[in-house]
Design a protein that fits this description.
Order of helices and strands: HHHEEEHHEHEHEEE
Number of helices: 7
Number of strands: 8
Oligomer: single chain
Largest sheet: 8 strands, mixed
């Protein structure tokens, strides 16, 4: 494991070993080479490449993910939990899709989160978005309920279902759903 990868993982309070021990079925289902496709609907920017190979997260790819998932309101970036990207790969694999995830919200600054709490219903004051551990998504060609159900079956973090807003929230926090 490279020092940059170690720092990224340790910054989230986990190591590759603890991730595998904490979620053996989740970790075992991940491919040896992990590709991801993301499209930010607010900025029009996309990411479509390998972010994990040869046992390591690829620093340049993780930096690009951080950029694509930045807070589009403040243009600020934050480290994104690598386990969140792994969760998306597992979801796409479970749903047998090669489509790119449409990202409604990735990282949100605390300022943006506070503003949304005041102006929008359903936004958590103690959201995981400002920690880089949450993402709101949809997957073209897959029913939103099916996306939610697949996320629930993974039992790896929080899952929120927002059919009126047409997205599913997933995060790498405690297992829960709403």
């Amino acid at each position: 494991m490279t020092e940059i990868t170690r720092r990224n993982l340790i910054g989230f309070g986990v190591t590759a070993l603890s991730m595998a021990i904490a979620t053996p079925s989740f970790a075992a289902a991940l491919p040896k080479k992990r590709d991801l496709k993301l499209h930010n609907i607010h900025t029009g920017e996309s990411f479509s490449e390998t972010y994990w190979a040869n046992g390591h997260y690829i620093p340049g790819a993780m930096a690009e993910i951080r950029h694509v998932l930045r807070d589009h309101r403040t243009n600020t970036q934050h480290a994104i939990d690598p386990a969140l990207m792994d969760l998306l790969v597992s979801l796409r694999t479970r749903l047998q899709s090669q489509e790119r995830f449409e990202v409604i919200s990735g990282y949100r600054s605390q300022e943006t989160n506070d503003m949304l709490c005041e102006t929008t219903s359903g936004v958590a004051r103690h959201s995981m978005h400002p920690q880089g551990k949450a993402i709101d998504i949809r997957l073209p060609g897959r029913d939103l309920r099916r996306l939610r159900d697949a996320a629930l079956k993974l039992k790896h973090g929080g899952v929120g279902y927002y059919p009126d807003s047409e997205f599913v929230h997933v995060d790498t926090g405690p297992v829960r759903h709403w």
